[in-house]
Amino acid sequence: MKHEQSIAGELGGSEAQQAASSVPAGGLTPAMTLLLAVAAGLSVANIYFVQPLLDAVAREFRVSAEAIGIVVTVTQLGYAAGLILIVPLGDFFNRRRMVAGQGFLSVAALLLAALAPSLPLLLGALVVVGLLAVAVQVLVAFAATLAGPGGGGRAVGKVTSGIVIGILLARFISGALADMGGWRSVYLASAAAMLVMSALLLRVLPDEAKTERPSSYPALLRSMLLLFVEEPLLRVRALLALLIFAAFSIFWTSMVLPLSAPPLSLSSTQVGLFGLIGIAGSLAAGSAGRLADEGRGQRTTGMALAVLLLAWLPLSFLDLSLLWLMVGVVLLDLAVQAVHVTNQSMLFAVRPEARSRIVGGYMVFYSIGSGLGAISSTTAYGHAGWAGVCTLGAAVSLLAWGFWLATRRLGQGPSPAASEA
């Protein structure tokens, strides 16, 4: 019980009990599940809309290909900040009001991005967009609460499917809208969709009766840090998330640059189609959670990381054939999503009473990795072209596989402290 005592010491006794147990607030219907999944997909899509737009944004604001990756990086940094500062509050505050409020504020941030007259204002707006997009994590926790005992896993799985589809469709939708009305139309359309979705969430979702509050906001944040101190599995899996999503972002950030340049000269819509191809790999990764439940999480991780490294070979053949690029996209998305699903499956089994804070802390590393991958990718492209991007991606993937190999004995399962509970 050591870990429960340490967390309870940070939150206060009654608050810790409130964090560990939630009472279903009305039940989860199929229609409500669909609404939560769509809302989650739309929220997370706001982070990824910009990737197919990098070339257009760079041209308008006269920014080099080497420097334009900062647009993706600041969005991810805003998301990382939201995971730390906002997501933990979902354990203690009315989630219906939280997600609706974040949605309405996102409308204002998206409108600012659409109307930004300069790059600094666009960057500021995208920081706020990323900060508020963490509503997706609050929605996942809300789905599990509404489903009640015995139904939380299925509910979380369905909402998570919405997240994955949202990420992958974002690139296609963004490219298609940009071709029709320019890159600013993407954010105008998203603002309109968020306005409608936020109003629906406020109207349809049930209220939660939250009577407890954390002893203090700093105590709540410290309790997240304590989890990293107490759980070696969380530390290992969080660093793996940083590395795999850095590799993921290295590819997806710079891919638009060679595809939109001569001799290929693809349109934004055509570039966005590669996001649809990635859905195949992501859906194939769904069995990774089942393998982790069967105790084969470590083997699944090692195999997926090997596939991630292998994926950079066909990706490097972009100049030879787009078919090779398609093969690489499927392998890359399969590998990254398999590791991501395995990570979460293993972590959820470690500390059931602190899942929200575990997910928030874990996803911070996901966001940091995505941001670092974005800025390093465009820098590599500016200096060495697509070959430099693929070399960087392969190096990060090799580092991830080596890190897993060196730490796999630390990631077998719950810590000794957890096993004493």
Automatic annotation (TrEMBL):
Pfam families: MFS_1 (PF07690). InterPro entries: MFS (IPR011701), MFS_dom (IPR020846), MFS_trans_sf (IPR036259). Residues 32-409 form the Major facilitator superfamily (MFS) profile domain. The chain crosses the membrane at residues 31-51, 63-87, 99-116, 122-143, 155-174, 186-205, 238-259, 271-288, 300-317, 362-380, 386-406. GO terms for molecular function: transmembrane transporter activity. Gene3D superfamilies: MFS general substrate transporter like domains (1.20.1250.20). Keywords: Membrane, Transmembrane, Transmembrane helix. The keyword Transmembrane applies. This is MFS transporter.
